[in-house]
Amino acid sequence: MKNLILIGFMGAGKTTIGKLFSKEKGRNFVDTDERIVREQGKSIPELFDERGEGYFRDLETELLKKMLMDTKGAVISVGGGMPVRKENRELLRMLGCVIYLSATKETILSRVRGDGSRPMLNGEDLEARVIRLLQERETLYKKAAHVEVRTDGRSVYQVMQVVDQETRKWL
Ligand code: S3P
Q: Which DSSP symbol is given to 132?
């Protein structure tokens, strides 16, 4: 059975949708951030602080390679930066059907404000950071994905329904 992989910007709802969708479909759920944190015994902010972003990105690539060997038929949500590396985009598409959960900057800002757990959004001027990262990443998300599902103005359950419809032919 194919894997279903959710990609998208921080706050797009990858983990929330992934957890509920996997339950509904009776599939295993894997969250790459959670797996990295468990395997490293450190939180994401600690990994960024102590080892730097490059180290975290290498862990992400290694994990994708491992999952190609050991993960089948799962719903997988990946960190927002995973599709930035070309190698990762190729690995993601090999791993299964890739869904891009997209959202506008307004939606993202409303979801990530006040959350200190994301090092890429720490510091001054959250809005400027979101705008810059979104600009850098939007085309990369589209390149990595087989299907785009918009999340703006939709409830979690409405997004799940669209994901279900859009992925039936792939799975
Ligand atoms: C990141 C997104 C985070 C996490 C890390 C870096 C990013 O995951 O992997 O903080 O570069 O977009 P979420 O998208 O689940 O917040």
A: H
- H/E stretch holding 39 reads helix 32-40
pTM of structure: 0.97
> Which DSSP category does 118 fall into?
-
pLDDT band at 87 (very low <50, low <70, confident <90, very high): very high
In the predicted structure, residue 171 carries a pLDDT above the cut 80? no
CA separation for the pair 146, 6 (Å, rounded): 11
Q: Is the CB of 96 under 6 A from ligand 1?
A: no
What ligand 1 atom has the least distance to the C-alpha of 14? 15
CA of 23 to the centre of ligand 1 (A): 23
Ligand 1: which of 29, 30, 118 to mutate, judged by most atoms within 8 Å of the beta carbon? 118
Contact 30, 19 (CB under 8 A): no
